[in-house]
Specification:
- The complex is a heterotrimer of chains A (331), B (369) and C (286).
- With 331 residues, chain A is α/β, with parallel strands linked by helices.
- Chain A has helices at 22-27, 35-47, 66-75, 90-100, 122-135, 153-161, 189-197, 200-206, 223-232, 273-290, 302-305, 314-320; strands at 5-7, 52-56, 79-84, 108-113, 139-145, 167-172, 209-212, 246-247, 252-254, 265-266.
- Chain A has one domain: Alpha-Beta Barrel (TIM Barrel).
- Chain A is built from twelve helices and ten strands.
- Chain A has a ten-stranded mixed sheet with strand order 7-6-5-4-3-2-1-8-9-10, covered by helices on one side.
- In chain A, strand 2, helix 3 (66-75) and strand 3 (79-84) form a beta-alpha-beta unit.
- By secondary structure, chain B is of the alpha/beta class.
- In chain B, strands 6-5-4-3-2-1-7-8-9 form a nine-stranded mixed sheet.
- The chains are: A alpha/beta (331), B alpha/beta (369), C alpha/beta (286).
- The A-C interface holds A 34-36, 39-40, 42-44, 46-47, 65, 67-68, 71-72, 75-76, 95, 99, 268-271, 275 and C 81-82, 85, 88, 109, 112-113, 116-117, 137, 145-147, 282-286.
């Protein structure tokens, strides 16, 4: 089961072009999770046997109780990973430094989502750099690919400069079913993969592993490239797509952020995380019965059937054949 | 086991609105000679029936009006005239507790009495002193009595008589009584009024069922909290635990077990018969207990069970928890023992409208040969 | 009969005068703690120190030298989590119970924070308004919540001491159960409760008379004090949950929307705790 995500707030400091969270955040009435709701979630996760959690948003550090909540989770013996842009006020940064900088990576980690400097304002960049000066060694970079002509050189430079963890989390911008947003269409995914594999030499030389967030189809890569990925990632390569379980500040849950307006349920309807996971897995399995994956060939793909690859992001499938999928699935 | 409702006195210090005993205006108090005879008669009976016991219930009127000395004399008489059988005489007391004092308690304790049956009414001017039934003073005295019992490690329980004014507040009454005594819970009885009902307090069997029905769901869902509320506990035990035992008017087994003894030694079927002056079995001055218990005049009651089961109560699924109700109640209403009492209406309505829907269990206890 | 514990202010002369007694000493400042511990006569036993502070809980400077001594700290407000957090390790090594005022709404959250971090805590009540919804929420957390957490009083006490066919008086949590605790002031005037002491309702005067208090009829009748409510036939006497509340909130004008539904739920919670119910069905644990 993937690590669950708690959205501390739905407010953000940026307006990224690919952000599939944009729709959700614009619609949201809730600004931040309360202490009581957080404690409920923590109890829920503890009873589910899950002691690892990610905090996200919007921008989680915007929440006035961000540091309080993080410390609380740590005190409850959770491993906490924080998804952040790294952009925060000075006072927030000093607060994080004072309270959080002593924790080792095994207890507290950051996943810092970086955009290319060409689309980042200088003020934003300096904020991020200030953040990485302090938390670089416990942070992993995250990069969202939403065009085929992306660059990764700046990522390697950033990792080196701030002594960061030598790993990049590569996410694909996915479509939001029923909405219009920037994402890489299925027809261009192969080109994207080709572009990505062009950076393997650099990554190998820099000893940086490129990990995939969910929804990457395996067939985008040649066997040789898959081999390189295998080596670059010490044998762990992910071509999966599964419920990531997001829990909103309003105690609603959904399968993952691209599907944040699909079959949202209340956390209170479930007794544990396993039930939520099963619920969404069943739902998604019924979607994949209609269309196995992003490409037509996915239906008969042996690797998909053996679950080595899931056939790409389910949000792509829902976007491609919304009429064929039972309207009860998408609500 | 024989049950003696013993009324050495029928006078009372209270003026409870529904009481049939005080209406008799009976001032007599049983003298010690007759009291001695009572113990002699009990000894005879128990000697002839080695396995038997007698439950000897001191009743009234108000028994505390007898005074502590009376009970001390009773104790001595028992010691003198029941030396071998005294251990099979179980004394119980029914008292309003407003006159109880330490001397009386000491006398009770010598007779092995450790619990007192009583009655209480949260609604004012139903039970109380004098013409206007001063319940404030009465209740204060009652509480004083209860405190005294507690100091002597004695327990007590109440019967609550449900009347017309109770109908508007069943749960409030229930909670009040269970708050008053957390360890021994009330026994709800329907008011019995025959003849003139000047205060319009009488209620029908259905109304009594509705009163019980308002309380039943609370009791059912909290049975551990309120372990022995009657009649719920008995019905429950009969239906779920197959423990077929009911209180007197529902048991169908009162014929040869009960006897009332009045201040002059007169006997009747039971306390109610003594109050209404029916089914008189003669005087203990002239008859033994055995003769009283086996009186031919009990025969109609003995025939009643079979008769009802073949007629009015034929195939009735509620038979096992009703048995046609109290024969005396039937007689007072219909002038005929061979009729069902108002309990029939109560039982049917309560079970069908409340017990079965709440518990999900279907009651089925027809007469079995 | 067990001798009651004496609750008294820190007064050396008084503590020296009384022998063979268990004490709860009340102080207003944390500086007194060490002095109190040193001052207890060898024949007496100090069961705890009760401190009522104006400070927020988070602003208290905890001294690791307080060690395992039972401290009962009453504060008006929780304060700030970030201020408290660095002290949690010291707190856990102390034997301290925190009580927060039920009047302040954030304190309910604060108590959940404390309990979930395995720090014993509880509510204390004055006659100021309380949010009964928050009370109910906290009570449910204290009794029904499955993840392990520390005690939250008075719910824990009630659940553990609940007399299903009797009466349960949680005043013992606050040393206000007169059967177990007596209150004495520096003038050696004795009362049954802290409130009685404040209102000059004394039952004895002079430390030498303390031992004879248990022979007083008023003392013997303490266990029947509920009957006064029954005689008054007030709202409390007709309440379904009287047996676990005993009229503590009798001063409230509107009980139907405040204490009554709350204590009815608490009563059910006590039954639940007693039964130790564990269902096999997937019933929502929340």
């Amino acid at each position: 089961m993937l690590m669950p995500n708690i959205l501390l707030t739905e407010k953000c400091v940026r307006s990224c072009p690919y952000c599939f969270a944009k729709q959700h955040m614009e619609d949201s009435e809730v600004t931040g999770i309360t202490w009581d709701n957080l404690m409920y979630i923590v109890d829920f996760l503890e009873l589910s046997g899950q002691k690892k959690v990610s905090l996200l948003g919007g921008e989680p550090t915007l929440h006035p109780r961000f540091v309080d909540f993080t410390l609380y989770l740590l005190e409850r013996s959770f491993h906490v990973n924080i998804f952040t842009s790294g952009i925060m006020s000075e006072s927030r940064l000093w607060q994080c430094r004072d309270f959080l900088s002593k924790y080792p990576h095994e207890r507290l980690s950051f996943t810092c989502n970086l955009n290319h400097p060409s689309i980042s304002a200088p003020a934003e960049t300096s904020r991020v750099e200030a953040f990485l000066e302090i938390f670089g060694p416990v942070s992993v970079l995250s990069f969202n690919v939403y065009t085929v002509d992306f660059d990764m050189n700046f990522l390697v430079e950033t990792i080196d400069r701030f002594n960061m963890r030598r790993h990049i989390r590569i996410g694909l911008a996915h479509p939001i079913p029923g909405e219009i947003n920037r994402f890489i269409p299925a027809a261009d995914l192969k080109k994207m993969a080709g572009r990505l594999s062009g950076f393997f030499d650099l990554l190998e030389k820099s000893e940086i592993s490129p990990g995939f967030d969910c929804g990457m189809p395996m067939c985008l890569f040649s066997d040789a490239d898959i081999g390189r990925l295998f080596k670059l990632n010490q044998g762990m390569v992910n071509f999966g797509c599964g419920p990531a379980i997001d829990i909103g500040p309003d105690m609603m849950v959904w399968a993952c952020f691209p599907l944040s307006n699909v079959n949202k349920r209340s956390l209170y309807e479930f007794n544990n995380l396993q039930e939520i996971d099963s619920y969404y897995k069943e739902l998604h399995a019924s979607v994949r019965k209609v269309k196995g994956g992003v490409f037509d060939v996915c239906d008969d793909c042996q690797w998909r059937k053996k679950e080595l690859c899931r056939g790409g992001c389910i949000a792509h499938i829902m976007n491609q054949v919304p009429d064929k999928i039972n309207t009860g699935i998408i609500s | 086991m024989a049950v003696v409702i013993f009324k050495a006195i029928e006078k009372c210090n209270s003026n409870c609105i529904y009481c049939d005993v005080i209406k008799k205006h009976q001032d007599k108090v049983m003298d010690y000679e007759l009291l001695k005879l009572i113990f002699i008669r009990m000894n005879e009976y128990l000697t002839d029936h080695p396995g038997e016991e007698i439950t000897f219930t001191w009743h009234g009127g108000e028994v505390c009006l007898l005074g502590a000395e009376y009970f001390r004399v009773a104790y001595k008489l028992q010691e003198d005239y029941c030396p071998e059988t005294k251990n099979r005489i179980n004394h119980l007391v029914q008292s309003n507790l407003t006159l109880i004092n330490q001397e009386i308690i000491d006398a009770f304790l010598s007779l092995g009495i450790k619990q007192i049956g009583s009655s209480f009414e949260p609604i004012h001017h139903i039970r109380g002193y004098g013409k206007n039934r001063d319940s404030e003073l009465y209740n204060r005295k009652f509480i004083d009595g209860v405190k005294l019992l507690a100091r002597n490690n004695m327990t007590w329980g109440v019967i609550y008589v449900v009347h017309r004014l109770s109908l508007k507040m069943p749960l409030e009454i229930f909670y009040y009584l269970t708050n008053l005594n957390a360890s021994s819970h009330p026994n709800f009885n329907q008011i019995k009024m025959y003849g003139e009902d000047r205060h319009n307090l009488a209620i029908s069997g259905e109304e009594f069922a509705d009163f019980l029905g308002a309380i039943f769901p609370v009791w059912y869902h909290h049975r551990e909290r309120y372990p022995n509320i009657q009649p719920f506990a008995d019905i429950w035990r009969n239906t779920f635990e197959n423990n077929m035992s009911m209180m007197c008017e529902s048991s169908g087994q009162c014929t040869y077990r009960w006897v009332y003894v009045g201040p002059e030694g007169e006997t009747s079927q039971c306390g109610r018969a003594g109050d209404y002056g029916i089914l008189k079995y003669g005087n203990l001055k002239n008859f033994t207990f055995q003769e009283i218990m086996n009186s031919k005049l009990r025969k109609p009651l003995a025939l009643r069970q079979k008769y009802l089961s073949e007629n009015e109560c034929k195939n009735c699924r509620f038979w096992g928890i009703c048995h046609g109700g109290c024969p005396l109640d039937a007689f007072m209403i219909h002038n005929d023992f061979m009729k069902v009492s108002s309990k029939c209406d109560t039982t049917k309505r309560f079970i069908e409208k409340y017990f079965e829907p709440v518990t999900g269990f279907k009651v089925d206890f027809p007469y079995l040969n | 009969m067990i001798k009651p514990v004496l609750v008294c202010p820190f007064n050396r002369k008084l503590m020296d005068k009384i022998k063979n007694t268990q004490f709860i000493i009340t102080v207003t400042g944390f500086d007194d703690i060490h002095e109190v511990i040193k001052s207890v006569h060898r024949t007496n036993e100090l069961l705890g120190i009760k401190i009522h502070t104006e400070k927020t809980l988070s602003s208290i400077d905890f001294d690791k030298n307080w060690e395992k001594f039972p401290l009962f700290i009453y504060a008006e407000n929780f304060g700030e989590f970030l201020e408290l957090f660095p002290k949690t390790e010291i707190i856990r090594n102390l034997n301290v119970h925190f009580f927060l005022s039920a009047h302040n709404e954030f304190n309910f959250t604060g108590l959940k924070i404390l309990a979930s971090l395995r720090i014993h805590c509880g509510l204390w009540f004055d006659k100021l308004p309380v949010s009964w919804d928050l009370m109910n929420d906290l009570m449910h957390y204290a009794i029904y919540s499955k993840p392990k957490h520390a005690h939250i009083e008075p719910f824990k006490w009630l659940a553990e001491h609940y007399a299903v066919n009797g009466y349960s008086n949680y005043d013992a949590v606050y040393f206000n159960d007169p059967i177990k605790f007596l209150h004495i002031n520096s003038n050696e005037q004795v009362a049954f409760t802290a409130d009685d002491l404040l209102n000059n309702k004394f039952i004895a005067e002079g430390a030498e008379n303390i031992d004879s208090i248990q022979n007083l009829q008023e003392y013997k009748d303490l266990s029947h004090s509920r009957y006064e409510s029954m005689l008054k036939m007030d709202d409390c006497s007709f309440c379904s949950a009287f047996r676990i509340c005993l009229g503590k909130f009798g001063y409230l004008k509107d009980k139907k929307t405040t204490c009554q539904p709350f204590f009815a739920d608490l009563h059910d919670a006590c039954d639940y705790h007693l039964s130790g119910k564990k269902t096999k069905e997937n019933i929502l644990w929340q």
